[in-house]
Structures are given as C-alpha cells and as structure tokens.
C-alpha cells in the first residue's frame, strides 16, 4: 500500500475507554469515574490533533485482557461501531503494548493508536523550533522501535493521518539499526542544544535575574498568564499543548526588580515517559528556577486530580521542594459562591489572566517570594556628576526620598543586592 502524507482534513475517529471495577469497600470512589473523566480528556486531545469524533465506546471490566485489553466480544462491537460511524481510526485511552495494538488492528480492521501515540502526534503538530522538532522525533522513534517486529503491513500505512506525523513521513519502513543510528544522532544534537542553553543561562546569570517558571496542567491558562505578565504575545489556544517551545521574557516587579519568566510545556496524566526524557533540555528551565508558579484552572471540576498529576512530574524532575506559589487561574469562570470562598492556602493567589484580575497581587507575591537578589533598604550618597549611577538607581530600584546637598545627591532607596554591588557604593542600612 502506498504511503500517503497527512492532510489537515478532519479524520473520523472512534474513542475507546476502559475501566477496571474497584472493590465495593473503597469509600467515596465510584468505579469508572476517573476513567470516564480521562475519556473526556482524550476527546479534547483528539480534537487538538485535528480529529472528528465519530463516537465513543466505554467498557467496565474485572481485569484488563492481556491480549486485546477489551476482550474479543467487545472488540467485535468496536469493529461494528467503527464501521457504522465510518471511523477509520480507533483511539484507546490507555497505553497499548505492541502485541495488543497488532491484535486490535486485526480484530477491528481499523488503524489503532493509543494515548501515547496521540499525544506524540499533537506534539509533532505544535513543535516549531528545531529543538522541539528534534525532541518530538526522538520520543516518536523510541516509541516506534519496539513496535517494528512483525509490522510490515502496519508500517506501510504510516503517514496517513492521526498518530503518524513526523517519523511516518520519513519512511520508517527501515530496520532497527538505521532507527537506532537516527536516535543517536538526534540525542547528540539535543545534547548540543542543551549545552548551548546552559551557556546562555550562564550568560544570564552574570546579571543575577531570578527565573520564575510557569508549570501546570495543559490548558490551565499558562500562556495567557505569561502574556498578561510579560506582554510577550505568545500563542494562546484552547487546544491542548498549543505551547511546546519554551519562551523566556523579562518581567519587572513592583520593587522595580526584574525577573525572567519562563513558559513551559503543559503536563498531562500518563504523559509518555519518553517525552519527559526527550524534553529534558526544555524542562531544565524549571530545574533552574528560583520560584515555581503552579498554575491551576480553578474552574475545572477535576483541578485537584490535575494538580496531583503535575506534582508527580515535578517529583520526577526533582523540584517538588522548590519555592512556589499556587496560582488559581480562571476565576472569571467561577460562580459567585466559589469565587468568594476563603482560601486556606496562604501560598495561593487567585487571578484571571484573561481579565487581569489579581495580577497586581500576583506580582507583589512573586516579589516577596523571590529568594534571589534580595531587596536592601539603604541610605547612601552619589556624586551629582555620576549621572549613570543615578539613572541606574531610578531604573532598577525604588527611590523613597532624595535630597541634593552641594555636589552630592543623598538617597533613601530600596535596591536589589546585585545593583548595590554594581554601584560599588558604601551604603548605610536604614534602621527600622
């Protein structure tokens, strides 16, 4: 069969969710509740990949069938549903083994992809920078490598639509050796990019500006918040994983200090481990951050579960103990009773990145929480002829009072410690 290139047409897909029955003694947990929420999320992921949802099938089981996940009877039902709804692709809301995927394709007579392959497809759509494209391709190749054996017929269909972008276009009907060679080349290229990023970071650190990293579940509003704080004009989209390539911008705080704000890729439940490894260079911005802003879509009824998934990834990155602020975003979508409910978390800030409500308070809290380049309240003199230093005091600090005596200007001001060092002044601290 001739390989075709993917198009922007909406491919019709059938979604399949599977839940495992829980023991009846588990309090407060309904069987299938989490799995149904995950299936709804899969629908959003599929739409972000350009798919047209033809239908859904959900099954509760005592245990997962090791060969087909859903069992042969249910597999026949999926085949009929796909035929009735004219769906050419079946997407499973779980990760499938190579054997399960082959069995399901034979049993349903449809192309079958899993949650990981769908997420990889979305990443392939949204990776625009060279770094992002390399990272996505590396994850795709590592995903494909164990699926090569016995897939001659299936591989001939690569490049035809959802779940096949990227490596599918590069004719991956090759042997393992050639794919491993490509993996090595990409890994070396990403390592070179990582070193370049490290050098740029060292250059930034020569002027000590702390980095504030935005993290959170996909579609929590991080890019909208990033734009509101930095006026950067980063792409904002309701689609999942619209932001893939990292962006860093300088933001001025109320104290007149400047910090670097970093927008990062959104997290999601069951994020493929290969993606976390591939995006190591990008996620180093989080690991180097002086402060983490955990952004939550507070209007989403599943926001607690989403935050728990983010915490898992932060633990994997080794940054769970970093200083952080919890940003409760999208308060403009909350009903009045929830909007006015008191917060029990003193480290949380309620904002609407869309309307701007709460952003001034957020900047103030960031200012207070930044552990680097502390503000010093000082009393000092500068010669009137030293216009450069006087301008620096006004530009980078907050002048509380100033007086001119003969050829000297006397200041009382709040200055970042780094500015005090650059001015080489001999200040006297202001006593409280």
Summarize the structure.
The protein has 432 residues and is α/β, with parallel strands linked by helices.
Could you describe the 3D structure shown?
36% of the residues are buried. The protein contains 15 helices and 14 strands. The protein has a six-stranded mixed sheet with strand order 6-7-5-8-9-10, sandwiched between helices. A four-stranded parallel sheet has the order 2-1-3-4, sandwiched between helices. A four-stranded antiparallel sheet has the order 12-13-11-14. A hairpin with a 2-residue loop joins strand 12 and strand 13. The longest helix is centred in the middle third of the chain and has 31 residues. 40% of the residues lie in helices and 21% in strands. The radius of gyration is 26 Å and the shape is elongated. The protein is α/β, with parallel strands linked by helices.
């Amino acid at each position: 069969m001739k390989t075709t290139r993917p198009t922007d047409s909406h491919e019709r897909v059938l979604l399949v969710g599977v839940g495992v029955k829980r023991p009846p003694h588990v309090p407060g947990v309904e069987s299938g509740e989490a799995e149904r929420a995950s299936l709804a999320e899969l629908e959003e992921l599929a739409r972000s990949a350009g798919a047209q949802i033809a239908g859904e099938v959900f099954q509760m089981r005592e245990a997962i069938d090791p060969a087909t996940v859903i069992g042969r009877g249910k597999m026949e039902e999926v085949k009929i549903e796909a035929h009735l709804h004219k769906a050419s692709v079946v997407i499973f809301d779980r990760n499938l083994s190579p054997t399960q995927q082959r069995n399901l394709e034979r049993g349903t007579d449809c192309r079958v992809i899993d949650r990981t392959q769908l997420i990889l497809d979305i990443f392939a759509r949204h990776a625009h920078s060279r770094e992002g494209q390399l990272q996505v391709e590396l994850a795709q190749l590592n995903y494909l490598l164990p699926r090569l054996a016995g897939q001659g017929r299936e591989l001939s269909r690569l490049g035809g639509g959802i779940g096949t972008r990227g490596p599918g276009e590069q004719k991956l009907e090759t042997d393992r050796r050639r794919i491993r060679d490509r993996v090595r080349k990409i890994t070396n290229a990403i390592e070179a990019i990582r070193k370049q990023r490290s050098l740029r970071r060292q250059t930034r650190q020569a002027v000590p500006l702390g980095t504030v990293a935005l993290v959170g579940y996909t579609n929590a509003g991080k890019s909208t918040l990033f734009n509101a704080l930095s006026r950067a004009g980063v792409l904002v989209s309701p689609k999942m994983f619209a932001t893939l390539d990292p962006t860093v911008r300088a933001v001025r705080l109320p104290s007149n200090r400047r910090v670097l704000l970093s927008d990062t890729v959104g997290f999601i439940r069951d994020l493929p481990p290969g993606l976390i490894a591939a995006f190591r260079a990008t996620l180093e911005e989080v690991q180097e951050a002086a402060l983490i802003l955990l952004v939550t879509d507070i209007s989403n009824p599943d926001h607690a579960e989403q935050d728990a998934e983010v915490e898992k990834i932060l633990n994997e990155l080794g940054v769970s103990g970093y200083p952080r602020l919890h940003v409760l975003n999208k308060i403009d979508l909350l009903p009045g009773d929830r909007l006015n409910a008191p917060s029990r978390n003193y480290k949380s800030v309620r904002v609407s990145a869309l309307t701007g409500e709460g952003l001034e308070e957020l900047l103030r809290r960031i200012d207070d929480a930044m552990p680097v380049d502390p503000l010093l309240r000082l009393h000092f003199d500068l010669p009137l002829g030293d216009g450069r230093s006087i301008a620096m005091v006004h530009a980078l600090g907050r002048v509380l009072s100033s007086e001119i005596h003969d050829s000297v200007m006397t200041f009382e001001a709040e200055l970042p410690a780094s500015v005090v060092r650059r001015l080489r002044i001999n200040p006297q601290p202001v006593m409280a």
